[in-house]
Structures are given as structure tokens and as C-alpha cells.
Write a structure and sequence with these properties.
- By secondary structure, this protein is of the alpha/beta class.
- It contains 14 helices and 10 strands.
- Helix 2 (52-58) runs parallel beside helix 14.
Length: 302
């Protein structure tokens, strides 16, 4: 009898989740409200507000939308995600909510890969793509990682998972959070203004006036281990992409390798790939002005 009660309870929770999802509109930020539409998809652990300087610059010429991806939704759970395909469906649903078509699709890291996946699923959705240091590894890497994940070793073997899980979750204030991050190696190339935007977008104020992460370590870790798993479908379909494509990578990136760029050019000889000197995977945060200038030049040329 208790098993029936447990199953019934799970069924009610499932119905509650479905009802909430159907009634929810995906949250987003908007920069400028005139001109051609450009949509920006953020990276794992970096909410849209982190990119304020970049997006405000882009919004001098474009109407910029930046949806909050699934880890920033209050109704979402990381255990639901087994690969990144649902993220592309989320993006499609958001664009449908705002009746956005034939737009410029761009994004950073996870957001860049999500944008590319949707462009392959719905070729008519975008008129051009700008991918900033996408999480895209060579095909053999994708096959090996999917095998590792299926064997249950993903969380143990991914080099970034343990660090994500150990992240400090709460701080006495946003200023304390800023001071803690200021000396982290990963943020060493970020200006104070960009780092403060990151803190402001990530900090959620509690009732006791302390702040905690709005993007949880559990979500960050789950995004890491499920990335790449379904990317063989990207490689299989990449040659079918007919829209102009530019990829901007950090010259010191450990996420989008030069080797990956060469494989992309084998599929898409006309793709533009630029390396930003001195930049890492966080190139849009480290070099926002240089990135926006590259975007403008590319879009003006097509």
C-alpha cells in the first residue's frame, strides 16, 4: 500500500511540475527596444547580467534579448537534464513566446552551442550566427565522453565538477562576494566593472540579508557532465548549415580548440573563425569591446 502512495505522490508532483512549466514564461533581460533583433545565450554559471558591458555595446545597433537558461528557473531541477538538447528546445520556446524569427543568434560557451543546435534544428530561425567560444569538441572526444557518462563516471572524471561542487554558496554581502572572487585565478583578466556585474547577477539576497548563488553548484556540475554527450548530431548535420557563421574564440581557450576550428572549416569552408589574443574561454567578459567590434564587422559584411 505504501508503494502505491509513493507512486501517487510522485505522479502529483509530476503533474504539478508540468502545470508550472506550461504556465511559466521564460525570464529574460532586454537591451534596447529598437532595431534588428539579436538574441544572446549565456554560459554555464554566468547569468545574462554578467555580460552587461558587451550587451549594452551591441544594443547601440541591435535590439538585444537574453533569455535566462534553465538553471536560473526556480521550477527546474538538474537531475532532469541528461544532455543539452532540451536547452535548444527551451530557446525555441522562448523565441516563439516573443515571435522572433530571422534574427541574429549569438551566445557564449553553453549558450553558443545551444544556439548552433537550434539553428541546425530550425534553419529558418536565424539569419546569421555568432558563436563565442562554444563548447564544441572534436567528434572522437564526444564519443568517448558519452561512453564515460553512460558508465556512470561522468561526475568523477570531469575536471570541473569537483570545483563546482565545492563553491562557496553564501556570503555576508555582495561586497564580500566580490572580494572573494577578485583574487580567483579564473577571474584575473576581468575588470572590476565586469566582475561586479557578475556578482550582481549571481547574488540572490536572503531574508537574513546574506546573499547566496542564484545559479546553484548542482546545476553547474550537471551542465558540465551532460555537455558534449549529444554533440555527434551537431557534427553529423553541420554541413547543412546555410547561414553565415562566425566563431570568436579566446587564443588561450581550453574549450574551443584550434583543431576544432579546422574540423568546422572542413564542413563549412566559409565560416569565419577569429582568435582574440590574450583571452581565455571568458573572452566576451575579458575583451567585451573587441568582441562587439568583431560582431559588428561580421554582420555588416553579410
Amino acid at each position: 500500500m505504501w508503494r502505491f502512495g509513493l507512486l501517487f505522490f510522485r505522479y502529483l508532483k509530476y503533474l504539478e511540475l508540468i502545470t508550472l512549466r506550461l504556465s511559466m514564461r521564460i525570464p529574460y533581460q532586454e537591451f534596447q527596444q529598437e532595431g534588428e533583433v539579436l538574441h544572446f545565450c549565456h554560459a554555464n554559471g554566468y547569468p545574462p547580467g554578467t555580460y552587461r558591458i558587451l550587451l549594452e555595446d551591441i544594443s547601440t545597433k541591435f535590439h538585444v534579448f537574453a533569455m535566462h537558461m534553465r538553471p536560473l528557473w526556480h521550477s527546474s531541477s538538474p537531475v532532469e537534464l541528461e544532455d543539452w538538447r532540451p536547452l535548444a528546445i527551451d530557446l525555441s520556446n522562448f523565441l516563439d513566446e516573443h515571435n522572433l524569427h530571422n534574427l541574429v543568434g549569438t551566445g557564449h560557451s553553453m549558450g553558443a552551442t545551444t544556439t548552433l543546435r537550434l539553428a541546425l534544428m530550425q534553419p529558418e530561425r536565424f539569419r546569421a550566427l555568432v558563436l563565442i567560444d562554444p563548447v564544441l569538441f572534436p567528434p572522437r572526444f564526444c564519443i568517448v565522453w558519452d561512453y564515460i557518462y553512460r558508465l556512470g563516471f561522468g561526475h568523477k572524471l570531469h575536471p570541473l565538477v569537483s570545483g563546482a561542487r565545492r563553491r562557496k554558496r553564501s556570503f555576508q554581502s555582495q561586497e564580500a562576494m566580490f572580494k572573494n572572487y577578485r583574487y580567483k585565478k579564473v577571474f584575473r583578466n576581468l575588470s572590476d566593472d565586469v566582475l561586479r556585474d557578475y556578482v550582481d547577477s549571481l547574488a540572490s539576497v536572503r531574508l537574513d540579508s546574506c546573499v547566496e548563488l542564484s545559479y546553484t553548484p548542482e546545476w553547474e556540475a550537471q551542465i558540465y557532465v551532460t555537455g558534449v554527450r549529444a554533440d555527434m548530431e551537431i557534427w553529423r548535420n553541420l554541413s547543412s548549415l546555410k547561414r553565415p557563421l562566425m566563431i570568436i574564440r579566446g587564443a588561450k581557450s581550453n574549450t574551443f580548440w584550434e583543431k576544432t576550428g579546422k574540423i568546422i572549416r572542413n564542413h563549412l569552408p566559409d565560416a569565419k573563425i577569429f582568435s582574440v589574443r590574450g583571452a581565455t574561454h571568458l573572452v566576451p567578459l575579458e575583451k567585451p569591446k573587441e568582441v562587439s567590434n568583431l560582431i559588428f564587422k561580421f554582420l555588416q559584411s553579410i
